[in-house]
Amino acid sequence: MIRDLFLPLTGTPGDESAVAAAIALARTCRAHVSVVQPVDLSLPIPSAWGITPDPTLGHTHDTLRAEAARQAVRWRERLDGEEVSWEVRVDEPGLVEPPRAMARQALYSDLSVMAAPAPTASDAAFAHALFNALLFESGRPVLMVPHAPPLPVRHAIVAWKSCRHASRALHDALPLLAGAGSIDIVTVDPAAAGAFDGADPGVDIATHLARHALPVNLVSLPRGGQTVASALLRHASESGAQLLVAGGYGHSRLREWALGGTTRDLLLATHLPILFSH
């Protein structure tokens, strides 16, 4: 059941699509939408002598706060009249980096919704950092939106392998899958999968979903020289899917999380909304 949607703004053109998707989802689920405009304030750089006050920071911070307030007003005007419960607030994280501050706020939601970063946009760095923080630090699923999806979902794809991340993503997505007319459980190169998949990869999870009265189909895709992400996205395009569900993979590096290859490729190349969960 989805009752709380969290939407941190990225400052990119994709925010409009993310907000439209959140509104449509809130309307379907009768959920509340919290839109948050973060303020990225530069902090004084510490030295061997401590933190030296920078007289220029005060003016810079005032400018950033004023711009955040202006953006908040614009989004309130955008949401005014929508027949869903919503709020728009400005968040000033202080000594915490904005992406991590947003991940903390996402703890109190059912689902985070955000704009998918453009692969070549110069302003995509914050969106990437935000996605990493939400995925690996909030414990909540993240719906990445490259454009506003038609809701409710008519056809969905679940990228399946027998592991914790895929199972978590699938079960986090159940509220979105409940009204789907068809769901493809897709395995890529199942013969190369781990021993836990058994003789018929995907059968066990398809049986589980059938007990939820979900209309599932098993689809096995060969890689054929493609990446896993390319095979999944090609099937999504050919089958007319409105949603892809995938585990969000990564590895810890110097206390920071780096995205796994398939997760990164899906994030940068997707043409449809993807629900990731870690």
From TrEMBL:
PANTHER family named among the record's database cross-references: STRESS RESPONSE PROTEIN NHAX, UNIVERSAL STRESS PROTEIN HP_0031
Protein family per UniProt: Belongs to the universal stress protein A family.
Protein name: Universal stress protein
Coiled coil ranges: none
Organism: Marilutibacter spongiae
